[in-house]
Amino acid sequence: DVKVTQSSRYLVKRTGEKVFLECVQDMDHENMFWYRQDPGLGLRLIYFSYDVKMKEKGDIPEGYSVSREKKERFSLILESASTNQTSMYLCASSQWENNQPQHFGDGTRLSIL
Amino acid sequence: GQNIDQPTEMTATEGAIVQINCTYQTSGFNGLFWYQQHAGEAPTFLSYNVLDGLEEKGRFSSFLSRSKGYSYLLLKELQMKDSASYLCAVRGHGSSNTGKLIFGQGTTLQVKP
Fold first, then answer.
1. Residue A99 to residue B105, Cβ atoms within 8 A
2. Tens of pLDDT along B94-108?
3. CB contact under 8 A, B105 and A41
């Protein structure tokens, strides 16, 4: 079974802090994704990566950056956390073939105070 | 633009059949996925359609009509544990090899005794 592991299930940080969310997958997947999920807005793509050191902006990249130094690890960085970044953050990974689904981690519920 | 529409909420009775519809308008088409997401948990993959027709997997079936930009998820013999959100997602043109998906906002299904 594919395992996507997010470093924290719950996290509380303060406004202005630099926040790191880590995600690791164990299936040698090429593609990795970061989403946030908010009530009434669904899943929104922040950033994704299709190879080591490659990254592309999703639909809502403002205020975020990412790092993919190794194939199995994809990090999301909130440069200066703000209260409107309080959300559920979901990491996913997939193989490159069209018929392969994305597999999700359990999510990190992040609260910015 | 790219758009995926699903009903926001549905209610059904235990033991019954329910159909959850999804319509999409995307730049090209490379497959449609259905996910199930229980409250507070990660989305899990249910089905994949790329050709027109019905794909059956036990109590769950998914149908696709590419000419109509339409899919549905059919749940038979409903059980209380089927109460969850159901997400429709499309892989559009140019998403090959990146695995990128466009998600609908999800349909929250409540199964009543």
1. no
2. 655 567 899 999 999
3. yes
